[in-house]
Design a protein that fits this description.
2 domains; alpha+beta; globular; 7-stranded mixed sheet; about 15% helix; Gyrase A, domain 2; about 35% strand; single chain; Alpha-Beta Plaits
Length: about 220
């Protein structure tokens, strides 16, 4: 029988739980968590097949992706993220990778590729999360411009990144805004170092790696 190998994190032990610049009895301004165990499936529609692809995604994920640019949707099976014209990510925590089912359902309408092994996701949350993001990007992260369900592909400092707003101040009271930040595996260490350096002045709590909501 062939040996089954497990995915190894490119961050090693660098994202282990600890507090940085949080005074005794104080409250962290931000939390960081390396999200592990994610399946990221990219679906790119063939010309003229966007509606058919969205229908297939709705059948598999439980909700249809938003066809508008830079929008994401919470679905029963995971997260649907617009990544380009007629192109979407389905991000799931289910150990059963949906890529094969989606490829079968969209054989005539879309190209399906797995992205999970090539991506790293950091979840950033807390009252000062928007200030941290503003240190590395020219995007306006004010809640009136970048709220729950908004996403963007941009650069954070020198690292290419997809930013997805999972929750904002209104939808996650007591937690603050919550963002998932996706970068390439090859830049994972540099990406984490930047995030920690940017978050440290605000009081940063690094949470144990996992797939849950990171709350300070």
């Amino acid at each position: 029988m062939a040996e089954i190998t497990q995915r190894r994190s490119p961050l090693g032990g660098r994202a282990e739980a600890r507090d940085i610049n949080i005074p005794d009895g104080g409250t962290p301004g931000v939390a960081l968590q390396h999200r592990t165990g994610l399946c990221i499936t990219q679906a790119a529609a063939y010309p003229g097949c966007d509606a058919a692809l969205r229908a297939s995604l709705a059948e598999i994920a439980g909700s249809e992706p938003d066809a508008r640019p830079n929008r994401s949707v919470a679905a029963p099976a995971g997260r649907l993220i617009w990544t380009g014209p007629a192109q979407y990510w389905l991000v799931t925590e289910d150990p059963q990778n949906p890529a094969s089912d989606l490829a079968e359902a969209t054989a005539e309408t879309a190209a399906i590729t797995e992205q999970g092994h090539g991506r790293v996701c950091l979840r950033l949350s807390g009252r000062d999360a928007r200030l941290v993001l503003a240190k590395g990007s020219t995007i306006d992260f004010h809640p009136s411009h970048f709220a729950a369900g908004d996403c963007a592909q941009t650069g954070l400092l020198s690292v290419s990144c997809l930013i997805d707003c999972i929750a904002d101040e209104d939808s996650a009271p007591g937690v603050g805004p919550v963002f998932d930040l996706y970068s390439a595996r090859s830049t994972a260490e540099h990406f984490l170092e930047w995030a920690i350096e940017a978050a440290a002045p605000h009081g940063c709590r690094i949470l144990t790696p996992g797939s849950g909501i990171a709350a300070p």
